[in-house]
Specification:
It is built from seven helices and six strands. It is of the alpha/beta class and 160 residues long. Helix 4 packs parallel to helix 5.
């Protein structure tokens, strides 16, 4: 888990995000959930850039957690479920596809905007295929898919 502070600045790679600057600008100015389908090296940085906002002044209150790091993910979800969240603005869940069914259920209140905390999720796999296979909750997928930013090979169906 990584709690950002005001001294943290992230630069989104222009090659990846430049084509998606309008999507990112819209995503940064709303409180809606965001799903980013992109190669891991771009997805995490894009998510953080969106979470901290267009001026970069929202780094306080942003938590970044890797879904594969089950201990910190559990701690973050417990914090989001029970603690006063006046200081927690956004949770970035990197590699959301790694969530097990119980974790997917625990993330759902954040996606629904419960307690004023926003979720931004990243994936590097075709998440909709996981929904069709039954390994990812369709309700969570559609809730996260409110704003969907896709970065990848335009000739490929990998990020559709």
């Amino acid at each position: 888990m990584h709690l950002l502070n005001d001294d943290t600045h992230f630069q989104v790679p222009t090659g990846a995000a430049g084509r998606h600057s309008l999507d990112m600008a819209v995503a940064a100015r709303t409180s809606l959930p965001v799903l980013i389908s992109a190669p891991p090296e771009f997805a995490r940085q894009m998510a953080i850039e969106i979470a901290v906002g267009p001026d970069g002044d929202g780094a306080d209150g942003v938590v970044v957690v890797d879904a594969a790091d089950h201990h910190y993910l559990h701690s973050t979800l417990m914090l989001a479920a029970g603690a006063p969240l006046s200081h927690l603005r956004a949770v970035v869940v990197h590699d959301v596809d790694a969530l097990n069914p119980a974790q997917q259920s625990a993330v759902m209140p954040l996606v629904a905007g419960a307690r004023g905390c926003r979720i931004i999720a990243t994936t590097s796999v075709p998440l909709f295929e996981r929904v069709l296979q039954g390994s990812f909750d369709s309700g969570l997928f559609y809730a996260l898919n409110t704003i969907h930013i896709k970065v990848g090979d335009p000739e490929s169906d990998d990020y559709e």
